[in-house]
Amino acid sequence: MSRPTTQERLIERLREIGIDLPEGARLVRTHANGWQLTDGAWSWAALGPDGRELHIGSQHSMGELLRAWRLEFGPITSGIGTDMEVEPQRCFRCKDIAHTNCRICDRRLCRSCMTDHHHEDYGTPSDDHR
């Protein structure tokens, strides 16, 4: 039995968060380059089993979305119509991709910000070692 591809794993994750992808849907790379991605171009798009555009995609790579703690999606309006943009949740501090939520305040955090995220009187060592 072979391991599922990145594409297959992302399709499953998209279905789990409520995006309705038909059986036989596939994700294809758009081959957008760096400056196009910073201008909002998608790095991948979803196609139906018949090859038609499903108007679902993201400027974030498939791997980046698979590594994200949680995903968000919502409609964006382009000159052509309404598309569905898939985004990773962002760290509340630095706006980088979030990898976890704080157990205490439930804020989204990336790995860097999580290392110095601190709550008063929680997890601090006691001076009294009796």
Could you explain how this protein is built, in words?
With 130 residues, the protein is an alpha+beta fold. The chain has a domain at 6-89. The chain is 22% helix and 25% strand. It has four helices and seven strands; from the N terminus they run H-E-H-E-E-H-E-E-E-E-H. The strands form two sheets. It has a five-stranded mixed β-sheet. A hairpin with a 5-residue loop joins strand 2 (44-47) and strand 3. The longest helix has 11 residues, at 6-16. The N and C termini lie far apart (56 Å).
Question: Which key phrases capture this entry?
Answer:
single chain, 130 residues, alpha+beta, 5-stranded mixed β-sheet, two-stranded antiparallel sheet, 7 strands, 25% strand, globular
Helices, strands, pairings?
Blueprint: H1 6-16, E1 26-29, H2 34-38, E2 44-47, E3 53-58, H3 62-67, E4 71-77, E5 82-88, E6 100-101, E7 108-109, H4 111-116
Parallel strand pairs: 3-5
Antiparallel strand pairs: 1-2, 2-3, 4-5, 6-7
Offer a quick outline of the entry.
With 130 residues, this protein is α+β, with helices and mostly antiparallel strands. It has four helices and seven strands; from the N terminus they run H-E-H-E-E-H-E-E-E-E-H. The protein has helices at 6-16, 34-38, 62-67, 111-116; strands spanning 26-29, 44-47, 53-58, 71-77, 82-88, 100-101, 108-109.
